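User: I'm writing a tutorial on reading structure tokens. Could you give me a worked example: one chain, its sequence, then its tokens, then a sentence or two explaining what the tokens reveal?
Assistant: Sure. Here is the example chain.
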Amino acid sequence: FLPIHLAGNMLLLVGAESFNRYALKLESIPLLAPVVEVGLLALFIIHVFRAITNYFVNQKARGSGYAVKRWAGGKSRKTWASTTMIISGLTIGLFVPLHLLQMKFGAFYPATIDGQPARDLFRLVRELFKDPVVVAFYLFCMAVVGSHIYHGFASAFQSLGLHNRRTAGAILLFGRGFGAVIGLGFFILPIVVYLAP
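And here are its predicted structure tokens:
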């Protein structure tokens, strides 16, 4: 979902007509939005449930907390991203409803695209991202999203038992690259819109 969402949002850089036409095209496909939204909600709930249960299972298995927390050195995969997964997950859990409230249920500005009545989402995005507080909030949240993916991608493979000595390096590298591309892609959009005349 995220790469497709990012690709669509990159049309903000092309202009109002392209971005609004893309949004209208998505809305014109019957049942696409409800099916995708229900599917994403179900995946989100499952993901949150599994993350919380894994967290408590790990805590119980450990028995007691670490006396000292520090980087293990060598081939340790402990990173800032890995140690803050619960916090980054909770942050994303707060961001998503706020993002939907602002974008999906935000102000409706009428527009006409190819002779059809449409919603001017480009104007809505521009108005939101002209507020430096909103931009700062989005930048923080997009950095968190990138960090969460950075560690979560490789962890998902490990949890599924698909992570082994032969594939570990490639999975880790791809996960970090994927997290960086998604995080940076969404990160630059508020900046570009804010700085645009």
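What the tokens reveal: The mean pLDDT is 87. The CA atoms of residues 51 and 86 lie 8 Å apart.
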